[in-house]
C-alpha cells in the first residue's frame, strides 16, 4: 500500500510521474505531454499565479476554459491509474472517488467565472479545488453503498 500512495502523491505533483515510477514509460510520457499541452493552452500556470496573488478577475480573463475543461479528467485519471497500477485500490469500485472528483472539479471549472461563495468570486483555481471535497465524498459514499448492496462490477 505504501508504494501505491507514493505513486498517487507523485501523480498529484505532476500527472505522469506515478506512471514513470510504475515502469509505464510510454503511458507516463503521453500523460506528461497531455498535461503540458493542456497547461500551456489553458494558460494554467499564469492562472494559478494570478489566483494565488488574489487577482481573481485577471485569472478569469487569462483562462482558456475550452482547454481547462480537459484538465480535471486527465489529472484524476493519472492519479487513479498510477495508484491502481501500483497495487492500490483492491476493490472493484476504488475508481469512484477519482471519477466523482473529476466530474465535480469539471463542474467547478464551468461555474468558476460566476459562482460566488459568501459573495466572493473564487475563480478557476479555488472553486475547482474546493469541488474536490464533495467529489471525493460522493465517490466514497457511492463506493460504500454499492459495496454494502453487493452489486457486481461492470
From TrEMBL:
Alphabetically ordered keywords of this record: Membrane, Transmembrane, Transmembrane helix
Transmembrane segment boundaries: 30-53, 65-83, 95-113, 125-146
Domain of life assignment: Bacteria
Protein name according to UniProt: Uncharacterized protein
Organism whose genome encodes this protein: Cytobacillus firmus (Bacillus firmus)
Classification lineage: Bacteria, Bacillati, Bacillota, Bacilli, Bacillales
